[in-house]
Amino acid sequence: MLSRVAEALYWMSRYIERAENNARILTVNQQLVLDFAGAPGSASMEPWEPIIYALADKELFYKLYSKADEKSVVEFVMFDKRNPNSVYSCLSFARENARTVREQITSEMWEQINTMYLSLGAESTRRAMKANTYGTLKLVLEASQLFQGITISTMSHGEDYEFIGLGRFFDRADRTSRMLDVKYHTLLPSGETIGGNVDTIQWMAVLKSASALEPFRKQHVGQVTPANVANYLIRSKSFPRAIQFCVNFIDQSLHRISGSEKGTFANEAERLAGRLRASIAYNTMDDIFAIGMHEYLDQIQLRLIEISKSLSKSYFERS
Amino acid sequence: MGKLFANYDTEGKFDEMFEEGGKLRPHYQRIYDRFASMSDREFSRKREVASNALLNQGVTFTVYSDGEGTERIFPFDLIPRVLPASEWAHIEAGLQQRMEALNLFLQDIYHDQKILKDGIIPEEVIKTAAHYRPELVGVNVPRDIYIHICGSDLIRDKDGSYLVLEDNGRCPSGVSYVLENRQLMKRVFPNLFSEHRIRPVDNYGQDLLNVLRYIAPQQNPDANVVLLTPGVYNSAYFEHCFLARSMGIEIVVGDDLVVEDDFVYMHTTKGLSQVDVIYRRIDDDFLDPEVFREDSMLGVKGLVRAYAKGNVALANAIGTGVADDKVTYYYVPAMIKYYLDQDPILPNVETYLSSDETDLKHIMANLPEMVVKSANESGGYGMLIGPAASKEEIEEFRATILANPRNYIGQPVVQFSRCPSYCDGNMEGRHVDLRPYILSGEKTTIIPGGLTRVALRKGSIVVNSSQGGGSKDTWVLGDEGPGHISTL
């Protein structure tokens, strides 16, 4: 397939996944804030600020807004065109990429992207967001999931499909690491301890935002501990939003594209992906806590960027 | 009369649906019955369904202003335009004849130039045509076909006879609307289709692909065919995608292609892959910075070299613009006579050449009643519509013509036919034209009907999308009756 097309499909898919996950990150806080409301000492918290830290958009945010409250953070993450990572911007980039490869994706896929983009830009969505934030965020998630379903069931599963999958899992791995990071940046109210009631509720909120609470419970009955949750979202091989799952997918997909044997590599992207896959698999939670959760997640984000750069070098560059 | 047509007035113009005096033409009976029985509410609901479908499918063209592109839908009018089988047979025969002559003409012009030597067309006319490409003289093109895809614009005179207004032999656009309009009508009025025998248009993609494969170098049956687009910001990009998809071929931009050792390749995830046939939707000027415009960012360096060596085929061929020059147009009836020894089945609109002394006198004497067009411009530029122009504009144009008589033709203002169209809450007559799409390959095929464009502004004869134009679904009936034979 054309290099340019592969690149556009990859980015189209990344941006849709990013839009979905940024909406998810907002839902973490929706949950956290509701839970905080009754907690002692909650008045001193700035519950919306951790999102800005986790998305690594602090500098831009404070250039545009003076205070991180619900109104400004939701506006910034959902609608603000000046924020290149806002849900609106992501969908518009996704659509621009889709437009350049419109004949490569199915009409159904194009129609879904177009509908998502148009409805998020509509004034009525902004109004609905005010009246029912959670419901509206959920619509964004559902629209993205519908797009994935349409992709899986209308597109033929060839090389182009692999690049769409790569885009999805690259961005998902990155965003799941950031969801965990929101929790890292969220301070506990004074008097609360790690592993205490509020802490547990916060970890559950993280699981819920990743749609992971129910599958998690099946595996760890009644044990919502920081180590268990982090272990699940980082190292699960079967949960589709866990970082390990995403990296495994990336590794396999790269091998499907190049045709190289499992356990070997045909290019730098494959080598780096294999290494990341093994490193997550062979690090225990103790290792991760020793490095520091935030630092560890940061490293994963950087290594994903490296893999993506090598992927681009192997398949997208033309000169 | 039914409600929707209750106040309809043909105003003495030739109307597609009603005869003079308001009698319904028989091939519109079913449509009339269906629409006339519709309540205002049902009709507006149907209109809404149609325009939402267009928006959601992204059937749009882009209008650029203040830096931000706005996407607009090409307005779609629900009342179809209907052609009875006999009328279509006449048009089809006329267009086939015209295409054959135009292709023979181009072959001649780029080789022996007999038609010039025999004095049928003055050499001067060809050599000064803006789109004549002397670089291509002596270059053989596959199967001697130059215009593979042609869109000829037809209008109807006040007595209803069909005339050719112009031929678009470079990169005619609009065919995607024909196919989309049909899909839309089927979605909105499924029953109408089961009641009529309407000739299908869905085969266009396959027909086009057959043409493109037919011209492959070495007649390679597994030729790699691609569509070359100027890119996503081109106003016809939607159509380029639509066509590439309906043929199942790659759509490429100049940046995807590279010429090495006079062969054309595209950059793929698996390295370079050879390209055999290019359906290019880029004008000659931008194709190859080595030969034409040096500043072109859209084309491919070396493409003309590969083309001249026969290593890649282009559709349409380079240099076809000389055939849709407005002055060349004047000579098409003479070409038909010269190459085919036949009389033209579809006449031209009466045309005067300002380069001819007698004609120039006529143009000068009748400027306020004439339409004067520049030879090489399109889209309504460089044009004078006498009856609509002020005295100053006419005098200004008079001087322009006299300064460069080669560059202009004059035509009397032709009456376009009108077709009922829904405007501002009423059914009113609006001017329409017809652009059939003609494909020349192993045989000549014409998509039944074509694109009916309608000037939605009252009194206007400008059907361009940028100037208030819209379109209609165009039906060619498969039988002569009142369109009621059901075969399903």
Give a structural overview:
The complex is a heterodimer of chains A (319) and B (488). Chain A contains 16 helices and no strands. Chain A is mainly α and 319 residues long. In chain A, helix 1 (3-36) runs parallel beside helix 9 (159-185), helix 1 runs antiparallel to helix 10 and helix 13 (243-258) packs antiparallel against helix 14. The longest helix of chain A has 34 residues, at 3-36. The two termini of chain A are 16 Å apart. Chain B has 488 residues and is of the alpha+beta class. Helix content of chain B is 30%, strand content 24%. In chain B, a hairpin with an 8-residue loop joins strand 14 (370-374) and strand 15. Chain B is globular. Chain B starts with 28 loop residues before the first helix and ends in a 12-residue tail after the last strand. The relative contact order of chain B is 0.18. The interface between A and B is medium-sized, with 22 and 23 residues.
Task: Provide a brief overview of the structure.
Chain A has helices spanning 3-36, 49-54, 58-64, 70-79, 87-100, 107-121, 123-131, 133-154, 159-185, 197-209, 213-219, 226-235, 243-258, 268-282, 285-291, 293-315. Chain A is mostly helical.
Query: Mean of residue pLDDT of chain A?
Result: 89
The tally of helices of chain B reads 15
CA distance, first residue to last residue of chain A: 16 Å
- β content of chain A, as a range? under 5%
Helix count of chain A, per DSSP? 16
Strands of chain A, count: 0
Can you count the beta strands of chain B?
22
Largest sheet: spatial strand order of chain B:
3-22-21-18-17
Helix content estimate of chain A: over 70%
Q: Strand count, sense and closure of the main sheet of chain B? A: 5 strands, mixed
Q: What is the string of helix and strand elements of chain A?
A: HHHHHHHHHHHHHHHH
Question: Rg of chain A to the nearest angstrom?
Answer: 20 Å
Strand content of chain B: 15-25%
Structural class estimated from helices and strands of chain A: mainly alpha
Helix content of chain B: 25-40%
Low-confidence stretches of chain B: 481-488
Question: Any idea what the shape of chain B is?
Answer: globular
Poorly predicted regions of chain A are: none
From the N-terminal CA to the C-terminal CA of chain B, the straight-line distance is: 30 Å
Multimer state: heterodimer
What best-fitting shape of chain A do the alpha-carbon axes yield? globular
